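We emphasize that the prediction below concerns an isolated chain of 491 residues; any contacts that depend on oligomerization or on bound cofactors are therefore not represented. The input was used exactly as deposited, without trimming of termini.
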Amino acid sequence: MPTKSNELHMRTLSELARGLAAGDFSSRELTEALLARIESHGSTLNAFITLTAETALAQADDADKQRAAGDAGPLNGLPIVHKDLFCTKGILTTCGSRILENFVSPYDATVVERISSAGAVLLGKTNMDEFAMGSSTETSYFGPAKNPWDTKLSPGGSSGGSAASVAARIVPAATGTDTGGSIRQPAALTGITGIKPTYGRVSRYGMVAFASSLDQAGVFTRSAEDAAMLLGVMAGLDPHDSTSVDEPVPDYVGGLAKPVKGLKIGVVRQHFDEGLDEQCGEAVKDALKALEGEGAELIEIDLPNIDLSVPVYYVVAPAECSSNLSRFDGVRYGHRADEPEDLLDLYCRTRGEGFGEEVKRRIMTGTYVLSAGYYDAYYLKAQKVRQLISHDFMRAFETVDVIAGPTAPTAAFAIGEKTDDPVTMYLNDIYTIGANLAGLPGISIPCGRPDGLPAGLQLLGPHFSEMAILACAHQYQQITHWHQACPEDFR
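Result of the prediction step, given as a token string:
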């Protein structure tokens, strides 16, 4: 019997792929069902900036024709949404900012192109913190996204719209970017799976830059299996991106069956301090015990410089943002101030009108630490400490295979709760920033629901060990049910 359209949203990406292959439903039927969910729930969550319904239906019809002709790609007919930081040809790419409110990209980002070439159907572009600067999606020019577990709460950020749309079963998968935790933190706060690959594993071409040495593209899904499917399509060398690494792409899905027996898991002592919510900490400890019960070995480790990751990040990232965002000046594209008196007036008013407060704060901080007389005292010193943090990880991986701990210090917090205190907001990424500074792959998976809200378990690995952390995450999801939970109002 054909599957009813009102059941399709509850299936994972992998389950949808199998259903399409079996002919249980068409890509058109699936796309129409999810577009209907966007229409019903999209405004509730404010998860989308742009919808692409006509494009999606046309792509779905093409996917059905390709499947009928025996020419189906690995993502044939499967719906996806992109964080509005990825350039999409002929479609708005706003980065959640007024300064790019009307910008239509003339080309596709490599991530977009590869996913599209694999046959995926684009449903829209998701809400995000302005230029990915934030941990709650509250800096978006288009208003904050909302958490489907409780719409008074934040879904995290900066990729909050992508996370909320997957958690609410509006879409089965979404792309995101992670500069200091912007995939893993919202994945934890919304109870889904989010992976940040090794720096250079996935092309950054066409991904609007925030901090070039930290930014990395990744995905949100409902399971590690789904994340493996997408990463296999996205990963690989790109001649358009000089930071892309020529490293063979393994069969991530094929490696999921590897058991955790004998796996050495490092547990970071510094991650279980007074800053961690007690219930979140207990959920993570229970998850580690479950992995130990499957034969993994838990080993306490020290990362002596990890507590310096937040101050290091908030020197390095603003410095790079100051440089990258200098291109938004009103001359070639984006917002332009009306009737400027001269070039200086054009620059000042365009940027003053176009950027939000958090972006201005980071630009000014970054410009300051790069200025004459302060470069050595701040930026150069931060880069030296960054190397110490990286070396701490490398030493740890000499004795353990993966590192595990909490993804975020608390469960989801109220919208508006931290907006007046930037430092408190910054500390929400305290457990995730280290991986970006060291360029390591990381994944967050749901591991409990203290007080009814999701908590996340973070797994980190050495460079290009995505296979290992995906397999560990998958094995955990075979013995637990947290990743299957759906917010009651979105079932």
